[in-house]
Every structure is written in C-alpha cells, then in structure tokens.
Amino acid sequence: MKRVAVVLLGVMALALMPTIGCAQGLFGGLPGLPSFGGLTGGPSGCGEKLCPSANLEAYVGYMDDRVGTAIDVDTGGIGVGGVQSVRHQFTNRGVWFGLADSICMSDKLSFIASGWYPAPSTTDSREQYNENVAERTWDVDPQWWYVDGLFALNTPCSGLTLLAGLRYDYYTANFKNPANVVGILSLPSDRADVTSQGWIPLIGTQYALSSSCGNLVVRAVGVPTLLGNVKYKSTFGGIDRGEVKGTYNNGYFLEFFAEWSKSIGPGSVGVFGRWNSAQGNSNVDFNLLGTVGPGDQRFKLTVHRNSWTVGGSVSLNFNMPCM
C-alpha cells in the first residue's frame, strides 16, 4: 500500500510539471484547507486583494498501513503475575470519510474546520508478553475520528500559506476472542481495550500551484509533543483485570498531504494521498482491579500509530465578499 501511495503522489507531481512555468494564484483543496487567494481554477494577480472563497469539500479514501498501531506497556522490571511488558500490534485498514468547510475572515486570513471518520472495521492483533516469550492473538475493533480547526495566513505571490491550529483526536480499540495462546493463562472471556484522547497543536505550511491544466497542493504539519490522556485495560485468565492510565507527557505528530484536482464548473474533483504518524508517551498509574495486587505503580505506556490513506475528493466553491 505504501508503494502505491508513493507512486500516486509522484504521478500527481509529474502531472503538473509542464505547467509550473505558467502557474498563477493559489489553490487549497485538502482536508481542512480549502481555496486560499484567487478563484479556484483561475489566475490571480499579485496586486489584487482577493478573499478566500467558501469551499465545501467531501473526501473518501482507503487507509492501509502494515506498521499500523502499536501499544506498549512496560512495568520497568517490576512485573505483575510474571508479566513485565505487553505489546499489541495491528494493521490500520479501512475507509475514511472527511468533510471540510471554511470561513473568510479577510483577504489574507481564513478559518477552516474539518472532520474525519472511518467506517467500522475489524482486524486481528498480535499481543506479545516479555518480548515474545508468550503471546496470543485477538480480534480488534478500532475506532478513530478527529476534528480540527486551522487559521490559514495567505502570502500572495509566493504560493505559500502558513497554518496554525488544533486537532482533537479520539482513538479506541476493543480486543476480544483471544486465540493462538502460547505461554500465558488465557480464557475466551478475556477482554482488553485502549482509549486515547489527544489534543494536537498543528503548525505547518502548504504550497500550492494552479493552472488551467489542474491544481496541485502539498501540505506538512507537525509538532514535537502530544497532549491528552490514555487508558489501557486487560484481563488475564478471566480473573485479574489490570488497568493503567495517565496523561501524555511527550511524543510527536507529523502529517504530509498532497492533492491534485481539476476545476469543473462551480467545483472540482481530485485525488489525494495522506500519511501521518503519531506517538504518545505516558508514565501511567497501574491498578489491579478487583483483587489484592501490588498497589499503585508507575509504569510506562506508549501508543504509536502510522497510516497511509489515498482516495478522491469533490468540492463546491462559493465566492464570498471580504469582511
């Protein structure tokens, strides 16, 4: 899937190489980033004061990444019932739906809101204990959605837009039906689940080219930290249910996006590719629920997530007077 996505982004870039010399104006058209400066598909002069157009965009894409999601719990050598570390890993796969809209605030400044939600899906997860000394597999039902808001500062003539905003990211995964058990006490009734809530500052830029042959946009946003909280629960042998929870104290987020689109009437159609990676690290409190255990302990929990998504977009553009 990654190879297909890289090829797609390369084709999108090559498609506009012959037109770079005559490209004029700016063009938006990515999740949360509609048209900035100039009319979609039309040229704009550097001396003109143009207001970003209102732009409603819908996206549908397929996500697939073998690296996927990894959830690691490290007891720091303390151990609980002989378990010193736990690792879940599973592929991220499914169909995403996205919607974005914008508000024109001035000829240079816009505010954009967007939201993405995946269709429900089920995959399989491998859980390893003590660095693969023991293991079992699960059926896992992940759910992941996010909403964000961005301020976009347009810099006419340069093709560059500066971006700053915030994303709320909600992720949960429910593990059930344990199987293929090796070296650990396990019952069919065992369950596990993880819930992560992240508040991700978004800082970055996009570069855009527009011509009569099409429009190309490339965006990068990221931040060297992650805010939020995380909780993980797991049952062993149908009896002991351990829980760890805490707030993220460090991590990172990085996202790249590219889209090629063609203006058609009052809107446009296009194709896009998106890659993002996030990691949150937390020193979590541990409790053994319902039993007499070792008491509260400080363990480490890491949630790492990669995803590739490719798909298509449709947009409608509405010209607005500047405020």
Tally of individual helices: 1
Question: What's the helix-strand series?
Answer: HEEEEEEEEEEEEE
Total discrete domains:
1
| Main β-sheet description | 13 strands, antiparallel
The CA-CA distance between the termini, in Å, is 44 Å
Helical residues, percent? under 10%
How would you sum up this structure, described in words?
It is a single chain. This protein has one helix spanning 2-16, and strands at 54-74, 85-104, 109-118, 123-129, 134-155, 160-182, 192-211, 214-223, 227-236, 240-247, 250-264, 267-289, 297-318. The chain is mainly beta. Strands 1, 2, 3, 4, 5, 6, 7, 8, 9, 10, 11, 12 and 13 form a 13-stranded antiparallel β-sheet that branches.
For the structure shown, list the relevant keywords.
disordered N terminus; elongated; 13 strands; 13-stranded antiparallel beta sheet; 5% helix; Lipocalin; 323 residues; mainly beta
Brief rundown of the structure:
The chain has 323 residues and is mainly beta. The chain has one helix at 2-16, and strands at residues 54-74, 85-104, 109-118, 123-129, 134-155, 160-182, 192-211, 214-223, 227-236, 240-247, 250-264, 267-289, 297-318.
